[in-house]
Specification:
Elements lengths: L13 H11 L4 E5 L5 E3 H17 L7 E5 L4 H12 L3 E4 L6 H11 L3 E4 L5 H4 L6 E4 L7 E4 L2 E5 H7 L15 E7 L7 E6 H15 L6 E4 L6 H13 L3 E4 L8 H7 L4 E4 L1 H11 L15 E4 L6 H11 L4 E6 L3 E5 L12 E2 L9 E5 L12 E6 L6 E2 L3 H7 E2 L2 E10 L5 E6 L3 E4 L2 E4 H9 L4 E11 L3 E10 L7 H9 L10 E6 L3 E7 L5
Parallel strand pairs: 1-12, 3-4, 3-5, 5-6, 6-8, 11-12, 11-13, 13-14, 14-15, 27-28
Antiparallel strand pairs: 1-2, 7-8, 9-10, 10-20, 15-16, 16-17, 18-19, 19-22, 21-22, 22-23, 24-25, 26-27, 28-29
Helix pairs in contact: 1-8, 2-3, 7-8, 10-11
Length: 522
């Protein structure tokens, strides 16, 4: 790994690290889109970032402005993060399939000055009263036009007319707020998590020092890139050490074993759903056609907790035991299992590796007192990767961020060697498909149905399939409806990963009338 000079007190940020790699290996591949074969070199990635940065500047983006980014996993999404950070502006990424119901509180809290979307068809869903411009990745519109009072620019056409007007990419002055990722804490509404530029530098510093991966190695990015963990672990950190990041989207995720072997991938962060596909492919009759995996392959679990049974199944089928870690939107990456420090079934040790004081993890009882090794309590985190707070939510910030420590709502215990272990959650939220799921939000949606008197969402833990969401619904007196109809109703308000996988129906008096299960999509 190539060292990048940085002050011991303030680790180099993601822009400084990227620019260092541009100097070292300008023509080496940085990001490749597996589906299309598009490859951006490090010099090409810098150019894309500078194009996006110049377009945002021309559209009036400055310090403190929020920009909503609703893009699929693509180089432009990555470029938007770097470009907005360099302008001391706020990167607000969201899944492009969010429903209007889910987007409404995000738009209300973030009040974005503008939006970045793939094409004009997305505009009707993401425009709010604060939005003054939209930057499209593609389209046939003039370079800048007005639609319903919103300035609309097409990036490709804008770049074609602005050659030579790029402003060189540079880190932001000071330590500004640069991102707002929305998450859930079991409150029924999303919370925007604010991070400063130095938080990213600190996390990357600790991650790279612990991972033991080399410059020029091939990394596979299969997760959606709008969650903060996927962005950090799958893209920003590998680019900071000069890696070749292959972004896999759509149906390409279903061929994970062939990709790992054919591209000789050295590091891949996968969710339990993808691991199930990997195991099935490794056990299939055509396994021998895939070829050998890289001898130093590092498989990492990301986005969701993975049970010991599921990890053992992967090791038996593939020959590589996944390394599990722990992180959350509010504290980035907290713990990790890497070569030389791995503890089977644990979430790993707190990140250190040059961080100022490192990451500290404690397990507290209900009175806020530390518990000894082996005792289960709430996981509490502190350190340089901690969030600034929740956007526009001082009450919620005070509730979860106390005395410089993040009270996570997760339950766990520390063993005698200091490794963290996961034991569940104390609050009504979970994860599905590597994304946060808020149980009160699901309940509120089901209660919107005119035949529903009450609803409760719950989490079922399957050792091999991971966490899944179920619902119990109390119908109004005399009401008759099928569980499948309620699932269809929920799909009109919720993203696919939040929709209950089973619905149990009750009449008044809590008499069960039956339950229906619905197929979980991979």
């Amino acid at each position: 790994m190539t060292a990048v000079a940085a002050s011991p007190a303030v680790p180099a940020g993601p822009i400084e690290r990227l620019l260092a790699q541009v100097e070292i290996r300008p023509d080496a591949p940085a990001i490749e889109m597996e589906a299309s074969g598009q490859v951006l070199s490090y010099r090409g990635l810098q150019g894309l970032i500078e194009d996006v940065r110049a377009a945002l500047q021309a559209l009036g983006v400055g310090e403190g402005d929020a920009v909503l980014v609703a893009l699929p996993a693509c180089p432009e999404l990555v470029a938007a993060f770097y470009a907005l950070a360099s302008l001391s502006a706020l990167f607000v990424p969201v899944a492009e399939d969010l429903t209007p119901f889910e987007l409404a509180p995000v738009l209300a809290d973030a009040r974005p000055k503008g939006v970045i979307v793939a094409e004009a068809g997305m505009l009707a869903r993401v425009l709010g009263p604060s939005v003054g411009f939209a930057l499209l990745l593609q389209g046939q519109a003039p370079v800048v036009q007005a639609i319903d009072g919103v300035r609309v620019a097409v990036l490709a056409q804008w770049v074609g007319q602005q050659q030579g007007r790029r402003c060189a990419l540079q880190p932001p002055p000071g330590n500004p707020l640069v991102s707002c990722h929305f998450t859930y804490k079991g409150l029924g509404y999303p919370l925007g998590v604010l991070h400063r530029y130095a938080s990213y530098g600190a996390c990357i510093e600790g991650l790279l020092a612990s991972a033991g991966v080399r410059a020029g190695s091939v990394h596979l990015a299969l997760l959606p890139l709008h969650p903060i963990y996927a962005l950090l672990a799958s893209v920003l950190s590998p680019l900071s050490l000069g890696a070749h990041v292959i972004v896999v989207t759509g149906s390409g995720r279903r061929h994970v074993l062939a990709l790992l072997s054919r591209r000789q991938v050295e590091c891949a962060s996968l969710v339990p759903t993808i691991y199930r596909l990997l195991v099935a492919q490794a056990r299939s009759p055509g396994r021998h056609k895939a070829g050998a995996l890289h001898p130093e392959l590092l498989l990492v679990t990301g986005g969701s907790h993975m049970s010991p049974e599921a990890m053992a199944e992967v090791e038996e089928a593939v020959g590589v035991r996944p390394s599990q870690g722990y992180g959350l939107t509010e504290a980035l990456l907290v713990c990790a299992n890497f070569r030389g420090s791995a503890q089977p079934h644990s979430l790993g040790l707190p990140l250190q590796g040059g961080l100022r004081g490192g990451v500290q993890v404690a397990v507290l009882d209900a009175q806020g007192q530390p518990l000894p090794a082996g005792r289960v309590g709430e996981i509490v985190v502190s350190g340089p990767c901690l969030m600034q707070g929740y956007l526009g939510r001082p009450r919620e910030t005070a509730r979860f961020l106390k005395g410089g420590r993040m009270h996570t709502g997760d339950l766990g215990h520390l063993d005698a060697q200091g490794h963290l272990h996961f034991d569940g959650r104390a609050m009504p939220f979970t994860k599905s498909a590597a994304q946060m799921v808020d149980l009160p939000e699901i309940e509120a949606v089901l209660r919107r149905h005119p035949l529903v008197a009450d609803a409760r969402a719950s989490v079922r833990n399957d050792p091999l399939r991971g966490e899944r969401v179920d619902a119990s619904v109390v119908l109004r007196a005399g009401a008759a409806i099928q569980g499948e109809d309620l699932v269809t109703f929920a799909r009109g308000y919720l993203s696919p990963h939040k929709v209950p996988r089973s619905v149990r129906l009750f009449q008044r008096g809590l008499v069960a009338t039956g339950a229906q299960d619905f197929q979980e999509s991979a």
